[in-house]
């Protein structure tokens, strides 16, 4: 099942009255159904933020845009966490030394020369280190 089909299945399950739109009560029931908690006021706020056409409901396109956006935000947060593990020194860059150290922790012993070559492949500004944007590019 591709992701759009999965989104559609979830959307239809949440859309209790089958009108093709999600109301605050439907959103609240959905969150309660997965073990979360959401007051009706919070659900109204969420719907208000997602509602781009002003009808007071969340339509299919708005739902997909929201789900896709959450996924991207999670990916960026995961990458930031991974980046912090590799950069270790708190300098905001992955150096050959910090890369070597992290690879060793992961059980993959590499020489400093190997680490320099690995960094050079993705070092877009040729400064000898990887910043977060270069790391993100490398991981994509």
From TrEMBL:
Gene3D superfamilies recorded: EF-hand
A Pfam family reported for this protein in Swiss-Prot or TrEMBL: EF-hand_7
Keywords recorded for this protein, A-Z: Calcium, Metal-binding, Repeat
One GO MF term attached to the UniProt entry: calcium ion binding
Domain (EF-hand) ranges: 2-37, 38-73, 74-109, 110-140
PANTHER family: EF-HAND CALCIUM-BINDING DOMAIN CONTAINING PROTEIN
Protein name according to UniProt: EF-hand domain-containing protein
Native source organism of the sequence: Cucumis sativus (Cucumber)
């Amino acid at each position: 099942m591709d992701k759009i089909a999965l989104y559609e299945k979830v959307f239809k399950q949440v859309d209790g009255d089958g009108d093709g739109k999600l109301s605050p009560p439907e959103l609240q029931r959905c969150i309660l159904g997965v073990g979360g908690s959401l007051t009706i006021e919070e659900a109204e706020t969420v719907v208000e933020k997602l509602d781009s056409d002003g009808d007071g409901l969340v339509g299919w396109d708005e739902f997909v845009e929201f789900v896709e956006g959450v996924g991207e935000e999670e990916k960026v947060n995961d990458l930031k966490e991974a980046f912090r593990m590799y950069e270790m020194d708190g300098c905001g860059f992955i150096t050959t030394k910090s890369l070597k150290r992290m690879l060793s922790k992961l059980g993959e012993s590499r020489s400093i020369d190997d680490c320099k070559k690995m960094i050079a492949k993705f070092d877009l500004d040729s400064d000898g280190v990887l910043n977060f944007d270069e790391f993100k590019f490398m991981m994509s």
